[in-house]
Design goal:
By secondary structure, the chain is an alpha/beta fold. It has 10 helices and 13 strands. The strands form 3 sheets. It has a 5-stranded mixed β-sheet, sandwiched between helices. The structure holds zinc ion.
Length: 332
Amino acid sequence: MPSSAEANSIIGIDIGGTKIATGLVSREFHVVERAILPTPRDASAERVLEQIYRSVDAILQKSNITKSDITGIGVVAPGPLNPDAGVVISAPNIPAFKDIPIVEHLQGRFGFPTRLENDANAAGLAEALFGSGVGHDHVFYTTVSTGIGTGIIINRRIYHGKNGTAAEGGHVTIDFRGPVCNCGRKGCIEAYASGPALARRAKERLAGCEGRSRILDLVDGDLERVTPVEISRAAEEDDPLAIELISETGEYLAIWLGGMVSLLDPDIVVIGGGLSLMGERLFSAIRERLPTYSINPFAKDVPVVPARLQRDVGILGAAALFLEAKTDEVLI
Ligand SMILES: [Zn+2]
């Protein structure tokens, strides 16, 4: 468990496309109160901000905490955003939420020190500090879900790059002729291995399938209902197509992660998000093949493990922003 003289209770806010999850995180880094409100997706930016304020008010009321016990507010949102300026540039699925100086707004409203970060970066930091990456300085984190997000933690700090926009690993291509990604480019790993990409590959295979697959039984023959959940369940029942699809997903991720290991030489690779719940079948496929796709001679020794912080990773990630290692000291 990390210790920090400045750590007291922290409010963590996770702004998502469907919900705003806010929590009070204790000094032991447990989420002790939660307020989950729907995101007013199509409302004005002011309405979205009001909903965020309301979630913080709810936490303050529920927890009966005095303001002096709060170290600050951490807030995470999907990118792009500028963590230094505290500005959300745009938020996928919330069209009106553009160029919002959210740190300034929250500080003005509540008076606490406030920090902003990309959600995947913050989740990576949280996994490094109190999840599966504990004890490691260099962590490559990825969340494989509706999309693929990544966070690069170097020396227990988030790597931001020049503009704060580094670590868009989900949009690294593994085949320039590949399928078109949500970002408009071709062959990004997200277009191969995200949840919707897996479902798409399953549907294509099932549409041309001569034999039967248990996946079809699980959706009553309705291809449109196929999701990774049914594929995972069918694999547990030894369905050959489902097993093949998961193994293939493992190979795509191994190709990509092999490159990441060549580039970063991390202590550990931590995989979160919905697809990480597919368990050992997916992870062993990745571990088995990753070394063949990396030039790093130590690739076979890099642990590839599931994330530990599941439901609360957004809130904990936001709170972790107040525990990030400081390397601002001048060395020369
Ligand atoms: Zn992409």
